[in-house]
Amino acid sequence: KVDIRAVVFNEEGKILMAKETVDGKWSLPGGWADVGYTPFEVAEKEAWEETGLKVKALKLLGVFDKRNHPHPPQVWYVYKLFILCEIVGGELSAHTQETSEVGFFDRNHIPPLSVDRIVESQITKMFEYYDNPSLPIYCD
User: Fold this and answer.
1) Does the predicted model carry a pTM greater than 0.90?
2) Are 30 and 51 in contact (CB under 8 A)?
3) Listed range (28-32, 36-40, 92-96) with the worst mean pLDDT
């Protein structure tokens, strides 16, 4: 399976996160890749559905093999794609079918993570891309 995460920073360098209703913890907006959509389209769609923000996908930042990171075991074999996006419209919306809160967080105040979806080292890597946009694409 392919899991796609939208990486969105605001003007202050804070990262967009959504609180998952399924476990009450936080993740980057995203979900399973949908058949018939490109990875960029999925990132844009998931950000809209989970946060109320319209974004434009700009660049693939990384491809993570879930088994190589401290996620809990899962039945499926999963690749995680992290895609940098910029805000082009919309408004933050706190309640959707999948999320109960949304917000921007700085690197020193990351909320409790939904570790099935994202782990701390992946958030740290996304901030590395914010600090140095010319880094090459990460791939396990």
Assistant:
1) yes
2) no
3) 92-96
